[in-house]
Amino acid sequence: MKKEVLALSVLALLLVGCNGSTEVKETAHMHTKAEHDKHWDYGKNNGPAHWEEFSQTCATGIHQSPVNIIPGKTINMDHNYDLSMHEDVTGLAKILDNGHSIKVTPQHGGTIDLHGETFTLLQFHFHGKSEHTIDGKRYDMVVHMVHQNPITKQFAVVAVFFEEGEANSILDTVIDNVGKTVTLDPQNLLPKDNSHYYHYVGSLTTPPCSENVQWYLLKAPKTASAVQIEHFRKFYVDNERPVQELHDRVVEVN
Length: 254
Ligand SMILES: [Zn+2]
What we know:
The chain is an alpha+beta fold. It has two domains: 2-38, no CATH class; 59-253, Carbonic Anhydrase II. Helix content is 20%, strand content 31%. Strand 8 and strand 9 (137-138) form a beta hairpin. The chain is globular and about 40 Å long. Bound molecules: zinc ion. Residues 125, 127, 144, 205 line the site of zinc ion (ZN).
C-alpha cells in the first residue's frame, strides 16, 4: 500500500512537471487526493501501524492515546482541572455506523466544565473493547464522549468503561437504531459516581491523532449485558488502537 502511495506521489509530481506550472500547492493538493482514496482501519494493511500514512502525528506524536494507566504511578489531581459534568440533555440524536464505530451525534449535546472552560458534547462512540487499560486490564467495552471547546476547538473526552453485568438501556437504543435518529439522554451512559477518574493529556485515538486532548477516564464502570456486548461486537470487536508510550506525561487521579 505504501508503494502505491509513493507511485501516486511520483505520478503527481510528473504531472505537475509536465504542466510546467510547478507550484508546491498543486503537489500538496494532489498528494492529499491520493491519500483520500484509501481509508484507515484496524486491519493489517491500513491499521494502526500504518496510520502515519494518514497523519504523521500518529507516528511522531509523543503525547498519544490510549495509554495503560498504572494506578500506583499516578499523582493527585490538579483541582483546577476537576471535571464537572452536565450531560442531562434529552433530545434527538443521529446514530451512524461510520465504518470505524457506531457514532451517536446529539442535536444539542450536554456540556462539561474544566479549568473554567466549557466543552460541548459533539458525539459519542463505542469501542468493542476498551482502548485504555488499567494496570493492563482491558474492559469489555468503552464509550468515548467527545467534547469540544467551541472557541479554542480543544477536545476533552470522557471515557466510561463497560463490564459485563446488568443490561444498559441506552445501549439497546443505539444498537437497534443504527442509521436512524432517536431521542435519548446521554446521562444514561454515566455511572452514578462521576467524581473519581484518571486524567491526563493525550490525543485522538484515530487519525489524525491530534494531540492536546484532555482525557478523563471514569473509574466506576457501567454494565452491559453479555447479549448487548455480543450484539455490539457484531458491528465492531477489534476497533481499538494499541496502547501508546506515556513518555514524559503523568496521570492524575481523583
Ligand atoms: Zn474512541
